[in-house]
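Let's study a protein:

___
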Amino acid sequence: MKTSRNTLTAYVTRDGSEIRELMHPEVHGNRQQSLAEAIVQPGQQTRLHRHHLSEELYHVTRGAGIMTLASETLCIGVGDTVLIAPGTAHCVTASGDEALHLLCCCSPPYRHDDTELL
């Protein structure tokens, strides 16, 4: 199975980021995880939220940001990867002059009903 970012339609998810589902079981037939690209525009912040079941990995591919992870604040940039354990409150702010691009891997796969806005 192969997907191409350029053919995928973006949508705004519950946390306010622009998402492209690069690989998701409901669309592509994989089973154990999902992979998405999230884009946060300069100066914008996603809504504070948590996922009760999903463990997430965020990997920065472009831009810079500030990640709030429970009570911890992390400066993130290209090449950084952040682990977000299930149940951990988190949000991210694009702090640079360009949009922040993240690859987001979720296991189990991302589901809207697993997202609690805080």
